[in-house]
Amino acid sequence: MADASKTRVAIEQASENERARIYRKISLRLIPMIFLCYVLNYIDRVNVRFAKLTFQSDIGLSDASYGFGVGIFYVGYILFEVPSNLLLGRIGARKTLTRIMCLWGLVSCSMAFVTSPATFYLARIHSVRPKLASSRASSSTSPSGSPIACAGG
């Protein structure tokens, strides 16, 4: 939180040229990461559509069950949006983005272990948790504050 207020003060005190340089630096660092999050989000959503074809025969998933599982994603989105934004304010953008990307990968991999419609629903609810706040902007920490290993981190 202190870093965000320092940045805000620095931008307010900067001249027009300095301000343009600061915004350019922010854009060059943030936009590629947000674009990567967007692409991975798109791949995740498309993969669920492709998975439907095999889910129906493998785990006995009906069209209604699939529709409910896809729709329940938004229930999770609504439930976890506020806590994720509160965490963003506490730990900062860098840690939030790292948390999002690492957890998102783990949850996406866990979709391979879906064996019933109930586990599909559970995986869809939990698949939203890491994604929240990614558009607002994480070296990764566990809930206790200790560092955790993350690919690429």
Give the helix level as a range of percent: over 70%
Return Rg in Å: 19 Å
Shape: elongated
The helix-and-strand class reads mainly alpha
The major beta sheet can be summarized as:
none
Question: Taking all residues together, what is the mean pLDDT?
Answer: 74
Elements, N to C (H/E)? HHHHH
Segments where pLDDT lies below 50 for 5+ residues? 133-153
How many helices?
A: 5
How many strands in all? 0
Our measurement of the CA-to-CA distance between the termini, rounded to an integer number of angstroms, reads 22 Å
Percent of sequence in beta strands: under 5%
Description of the molecule:
The chain is mainly α. It has a domain at 31-131. 75% of the residues lie in helices and 0% in strands. It has helices at residues 2-13, 16-58, 63-91, 93-110, 117-128. Helix 3 packs parallel to helix 5 (117-128) and helix 4 (93-110) packs antiparallel against helix 5 (117-128). The longest helix is centred in the first third of the chain and has 43 residues, at 16-58. The chain is elongated and about 65 Å long.
Features:
single chain, mainly alpha, 5 helices, 75% helix, elongated, 153 residues, disordered C terminus
